Predict the 3D structure of the following.
Amino acid sequence: MSDMSEMPPRLTRLALATSSRAAHVLAPVIACFALALVLPPGLLGLAFLVAGATLLFMTGLILWLVRRYRKSQEVLWQTAAALNQHDAVPCFGTDDTGRILHRNPAANRRFPGDAAHLSGAIAELFAAPQSVIQRLRMKADDQGAASEDISATRGALRISAHRIDQVGYLWRIEDRIAVPDTAGAAKVALPMMRVSKANTILDMNEAMHELLGGRPKSLDRVVRQLPLQADLPTQLETAAGPVEAQLALVEDEDGLTQVYVWPGAAPKTEMTHADALPVPLMRISPSGRILMANPRARSLLALEDTTDLDFAEVVEGLGRPIDEWLLDISEGRGTGRTEVVRATRPSQDVYLQVALGRMVDRDQVSILAVLIDATELKTLEAQFVQSQKMQAIGQLAGGVAHDFNNLLTAISGHCDLLLLRHEPGDPNYGDLVQINQNANRAASLVGQLLAFSRKQNMQPELIDLRDTLGDLTHLLNRLVGEKINLHWTHDPDLPWVRADKRQLEQVLMNLVVNARDAMPGGGQITVETRTAHLTEPLQRERAEVPVGDYVVVTVQDEGCGIAGDKLPKIFEPFYSTKRLGEGTGLGLSMAYGIVKQSGGFIFADSEVGRGSTFTMYFPAHHASAPDLAEAAVERKRPSNVGDGGVVLLVEDEAPVRAFASRALRLRGYTVLEADCAEQALQTLEDGSLRVDVFVTDVVMPGMDGPSWVTQALKQRPGVKVVFVSGYAEDAFGHNRAKIPNSVFLPKPFSLSQLTETVRNQLY
């Protein structure tokens, strides 16, 4: 089973219950082992020994699964919390028992206090909140999500529950739309109330309140003839006595009914009320022609005039013909659901949640359409899908990197061994050089994927960007060519930044090359560095730059620009606006990953025909400059001199082990080989054996590298260690930091890199 989040609920509960009783399980394990030792040799003693080993193994396995499960819980909750951080609606995250795990800022403002459970946080809103929460949880377990409108002390609320995999629930406590209690709105708003299936009046606007002379709780106090009929005149009990009116009924997606009262039949009266209605409203003929649209609807749909305009001309994306949908509604079919469509006229994407109701006035059938702007909801949905996609791609890139780097290490390493036996004049020398160069290109490609997933190996240091850019000036001028002018602007008091110099140079080169490609006719590229002090957080797209001091680097061009619909996708791997064969689509994704892994932020602004600007924010470091001269001092020895010394090489990949062993022996080392940690520890049991350096892979079947080295150093505390891995160093950096005299060598590595690293550890 690859992911604990995919475990069925019963197994999940079993795992959690077992983990909480792990201490009790150890008692029978010890008892079994004790009996196996006490009993005389035979089948019974062997049976107790096997039983104890089995119990111990199962306990360890379940504890490991629970640990993975809890980590997957943390990732899911972090994603959910990031998505609703800026939601204006109060949101809570709870576990299966209703215990609050997180709440967004809107929830803190609306529900202050430190209630531990959701029922306690919302207890003042309505009676028996626990029963409502339990009912919604059961629906969410069955359907994935559920919502319910509740009549509360402060009006009506919509409580929504979303099942978050097997880790808990995401709750939204949303106030239902209400008309402000102002004198102007009370005079002109169309009377409207919202009714439940049990004929309970949940809420009403001020116009309905004035019409009825109060706020009755039950519909039978307003209308004597139930159920409500939209196609017949209905008598209402109002403050002025019985009044005959026409009703328009619109059902919500959750089964609630919005009741609109049309007190007059004349078109002028209808238009007057519709124009004052505080919601976008349209009236449509069964054939699809727009008969009426109030100002809010015209503004939402960007319509200046609705004369001779069909509803199908202003919306799209239903998935079936709009005319068929309207025909079903006009004939009384499918009136209990809403649909999400996209408006075609606005310049920006506008999504609408449309509820349609059938109306009959003097035997004339028409359709009432209530429009709700669902753009923000669709945007949040798109952001969630995008974050899930980026997480999946990052996991894929990190997962395949180890295997790819092992293959590339074996290919390039054995190529290095062959090059040692061939001179430049040899006919095979050129072919070997080609193999070596292409292996390095493949390693660079894997590195770009890892850069996007922020798992590439980095060697951060404090650097002055002015010096870094100065070193790049000559190279970048050659890259952009003669048609393009490269202009530099630097802040004279630029602070230091902490980053990997080599990878930061790669980011700047990619951005400048992209700017060059956007200006085939020539132009100017401006690279600017400046300082910025943020006194309040900077909100850009889906990121928030915290308060503090930053070094800002911008790369601006005068090229063709990037279309607005493509701009949000440019940092995705393998997405490219260039033609086929002109790029891999990894340059910007690599830049994004490197900047993020350096603790910075990168944003893109572009306008078609006017150019693009990429802006990077790096945290400023005001510490004193490091002693670069001392850091640059290295103990240099001739690379072809044999050093001697004994190396214990532990590598589970046979091709990599074969190459590394031959490379070290060529430099005069005595090499002891092991294909797993257990074999290495067995080799070290010989006390007369001298070992100077451990060279070990980090991730191996069974015991991993840091674990066996820690155990071995208890008996051999002076041995130096070289860790090698195809994963990033930070994946196990906290373990390596506990091991003295250890260094890290990332895969793929060359013959000279391996021997130099071992020699530096020895001397």
Observations:
- DSSP finds 22 helices and 30 strands in the chain.
- The two ends are 46 Å apart (CA to CA).
- The longest helix spans residues 375-420.
- The longest strand covers residues 523-534.
